[in-house]
Amino acid sequence: MNDDQLLRYSRHILLDELGIEGQERLLAAHAMIVGAGGLGSPAALYLAASGVGRITLIDDDDVDLTNLQRQILHDTGSVGRPKVISGRDRIAQVNPGVVVDVVQARADEAQLTALARTATVVLDGSDNFATRHAVNRACVTAGVPLVSGAALRFDGQISVFDVRDEASPCYECIFPADEPFPEQACATMGVLAPLVGIIGSMQAAEAIKLITGIGKPLVGRLQMLDARRMSWHTMHCARNPECKVCGQRH
Fold first, then answer.
1. Which superkingdom is the protein from (predicted)?
2. 20 to 30 A Cα–Cα from 244, which one of 30, 62, 90, 91?
3. Is 247 within a domain?
């Protein structure tokens, strides 16, 4: 690291668990973020500020005025622009040392798998089960840890699925694709603005832990937040040995 980097990341370096070695791992890391919306916004900003060297943003949508209530990666001047371009410009303002790749498309599973193979960690901030399952399958195939988050109305959830850990379930183990949950969207159900900030920031924290090897990631635990009471509940989740996605791995 050069002098500017040592100063910029000094508050990380002061952490004994992280230090210079951990910061160097962040600088060498590549985080892939699916969705540049409510969850992807705080996740991207904190990962960029933390010095993750390369970030790939994947989103096919444009910024809408209704997004600005919670999607802090964008501002009023971004309305009508592609979210990935708006996000790239904002990240450059936060930390010009971060390389930002953008994929302005609803990436299919083949694309997601190819991109995941280049990533250190994948963060899923998408808003539909089809994409979540596609991202999960891509991460299982690529052997890359996945930090999954969701938020709707006053309820949020987060977990880590790490196929490198033999005991870790994947997303399919907990939410089987052939047992679909009712699709609900912010556009019709609403969402508390700071809720996506809480979950997205936690996704960034889990990603940093996975990159640097510090702490204990949320593997095998689904954390659920009721923001009305600000109460957390933990569901312990075991791997399904007959899972259609990860059951064959050794």
1. Bacteria
2. 30
3. no
CATH of the domain at 155: 3.40.50.720
pLDDT digits (tens, 9 = 90+) for 88-123: 999 999 999 999 999 999 989 999 999 999 999 999
**Number of compact structural domains in the chain:** 1
Domain assignment of residue 212, given as a range:
3-236
Q: Return contacts of 18-24, CB within 8 angstroms, 24+ apart.
A: 18/212, 18/214, 22/212, 22/213, 22/214, 23/51
